[in-house]
Specification:
With about 60 residues, this protein is α+β, with helices and mostly antiparallel strands. The longest helix has 16 residues. Helix content is about 30%, strand content about 45%.
Amino acid sequence: MKYAINGVMGQKPNPRKFSKVVEADSEKLALERLYAEMGSKHGLRRNKVKIIKVEQVK
């Protein structure tokens, strides 16, 4: 299944909105993959990534 995840990343002075489609078996695993990718590519900790919306994509 695919999940569309919308949220905000970064710190207060200039947070950035993001939208990402992640393929995973469940919503929980999709969030884990998103957190891992944000940490790997952008060097962000989990508390700097705010999830606004998670939807299953058909």
